[in-house]
TrEMBL record:
This is ABC transporter ATP-binding protein. It comes from the Bacteria. It comes from Salicibibacter kimchii. SMART domains: AAA. GO terms for cellular component: plasma membrane. Belongs to the ABC transporter superfamily. Residues 49-295 form the ABC transporter domain. It holds the Pfam family ABC_tran.
Amino acid sequence: MRVASIFIAVLGLWSFRDYSSLSLSLPLTYGPIICEIDFTLKSRGDDMLEVNRLSIYTPEQKPILQNISFTLSKGKTLGLIGMSGAGKTMLSLALLRLVNPMFHVKGDVQFQGKSLLSLPSKDMSRIRGKEIGFLTQHPHPAFDPIYTVGEQMIDTIRAHFSYTKKESRKVITPLLRSMAFRDPEYLLQRYPFELSGGMLQRVMITLMLALKPTLMIADEPTTALDTVTQREVLDQWSTLRDDQEQSMILVTHDLNIIGKFADEVLVLQSGVVVEHLTVEQLFTNPSHSYTKNLLRFYRKLNGGTSDGD
Ligand SMILES: Nc1ncnc2c1ncn2[C@@H]1O[C@H](COP(=O)(O)OP(=O)(O)OP(=O)(O)O)[C@@H](O)[C@H]1O
């Protein structure tokens, strides 16, 4: 239930239901972790997110993230890659201020002129979902099993916009079609347990696109999709993202997705940034051994003959 509250809180699915107490339990879900991260993504255009020397330490003072700094501009996408356990998810959670309070989070996160790490909790709750959307690879816990998907989507949209139910449905329906749902009306009448993990991932992406957050943070958001559906969804998603000039932080192990979505890439290893490069550099001239190996593997999978070095 606590896991559910994370996604509910982040995406704002608690609109008409009384989920507020659940959202408070969120940090406990992640147990004792502390990170220190410092990263900056700098691209052309207006900076909308600036992260300075962000670090997280466990209660035992073990560093999980160290001195991460980057600046992310409007409409740009930063890919986060790195081995399992490198700290990608912790970094995403730290930006949303969802790290367990037992951990020590240091540094500064500026989002559109607001200092997220020192913002009152109430203000931070408003930012999650509407201004910063969050998607994870495990969508099931985000949904209440006793309401239909349609009811929950409409409630969520109405919590953020002054739409009628009919207007909300009008917003959702074309977005569901773009997320490869051939029959949105049928889908909206289903209960969450009647849908596959891949279908729920697409519902979550649809909802996030409907809320039009300035910044999307997506942690392996399409892992449950088959290759054909994934391609269709990613094509539509990238088009909508570009149309709405949304910025994005994208956690993935898949260089195909990085190539399609990202402008720049941070490579994390054991909680530190070991490489920060443009997506072109990633595919032509990576420096770090992890990045080189990842590229070599990617080329083999895609039928290339070069070993990437
Ligand atoms: N609740 C927790 N308590 C203590 N340490 C944790 C906790 N959650 C994560 N960690 C540690 O934090 C570090 C970063 O974990 P994180 O989940 O961010 O890695 P990741 O890069 O997202 O990995 P993956 O690709 O497998 O999802 C790891 O060393 C992990 O063991």
